[in-house]
Write a structure and sequence with these properties.
This protein is of the alpha+beta class. It has one domain: 2-Layer Sandwich (Macrophage Migration Inhibitory Factor), CATH 3.30.429.10. Helix content is 30%, strand content 29%. The longest helix has 19 residues. It is elongated, with a radius of gyration of 14 Å. The relative contact order is 0.25.
Length: 63
């Protein structure tokens, strides 16, 4: 059972997350031949103050 774990900064819309789930699922089906029903995708929203880029939080960078 393929399992994809995706970390993204918070703020994405429900529609964007649905698109990520659909596309990642399809990519795993095509890449490894797994049945679509066996693919799992987990999106973890990360608060901007908990994500660092070059030593600065994404929040402080205005991301």
């Amino acid at each position: 059972m393929p399992f994809a774990q995706i970390y993204m900064l918070e703020g994405r819309s429900e529609e964007q997350k649905k698109a990520v789930i659909e596309k990642v699922t399809q990519a795993l089906v095509e890449a490894v031949g797994a049945p679509v029903a066996n693919v799992r995708v987990w999106i973890q929203d990360v608060p901007k103050e908990n994500w660092g880029i070059a030593g600065i939080s994404a929040k402080d960078l205005g991301r």
